[in-house]
């Protein structure tokens, strides 16, 4: 992979040729000299530079940027689907994406089919449902199933479906879906790409026709990324490779340690041999990544556990330099029904850990200590 740290060598600042591409903090541009840019909601040089860097990272011909990952997803779906269109998604995905498809798009007249977790079921439904578009997460959130991108891409080609991959958890360091047959790749750039928990952004990279239509919808909906946020994402990209190298290594160690930790059960991490997609992970990912899901035993109160943490921060996000942990049941997937949570195994004791840069030993010891303190004050123990 081309190292993001070398991107400054491709800077095209036409005014001062600065080492770091500047922030064009303006709402509009002089005419006719600014004919290409016109108005900030449509184009901005700083945002355009981020899109160019995403093409370099993903190996795609076209990219565009949005004010959030959900902005990228909704703009894409609304630009390509019409009443009567057929969309295939899977149950184990980010709940906002799932609900937008199942509630809004369905009410809009789009036929939405839902595959149960796993590549085989998704491939079967691609061939049986023959959707116009198939949307999946390459590593699903929060149950961390790993999807077989090359095989799913082949099935989509057979039926003429556009194949879209949300690769937020995988990152371009660990996987490049476009080179495996995907038509477009989405990122919540708020996560690993920016990497500092200080910006909200989204990107779409892929075939020019798909990106162009989504970008036109972006301008209609107004989900435009501001230049300051684009600048922060580009800053994060410079350290993406080195951050992921550390996060990948430490996450593997943390997952192994959690397997032997008292009051922790059902550790879910694609790098573990017990994971149902371990073989797929070895084939389609350079590394399983930095997110681990595990369950606390029933005698540990999840809220008491999160309050007892010191190094790991309880927060509804992932992918930053800080290790964060969330309870999907009450946080990221709180919008799902009880039945949907049960189908996915999202219990009150499920924890989603995003490994940061504090070091594997510090993270494991913090979790161990928080479990011990949570037991002391757990209401389940009558104390």
From TrEMBL:
GO MF terms held by the record: cysteine-S-conjugate beta-lyase activity; pyridoxal phosphate binding
Gene3D superfamilies assigned: Aspartate Aminotransferase, domain 1 (3.90.1150.10), Type I PLP-dependent aspartate aminotransferase-like (Major domain) (3.40.640.10)
Pfam families the UniProt entry points to: Cys_Met_Meta_PP (PF01053)
Any Gene Ontology biological process: transsulfuration
Superkingdom of this protein's organism: Archaea
Cofactor(s) the protein requires to work: pyridoxal 5'-phosphate
Family annotation (InterPro entries): Cys/Met-Metab_PyrdxlP-dep_enz, PyrdxlP-dep_Trfase, PyrdxlP-dep_Trfase_major, PyrdxlP-dep_Trfase_small
Gene Ontology cellular component annotations, sorted alphabetically: cytoplasm
Keywords: Lyase, Pyridoxal phosphate
Protein name as catalogued: Cystathionine gamma-synthase
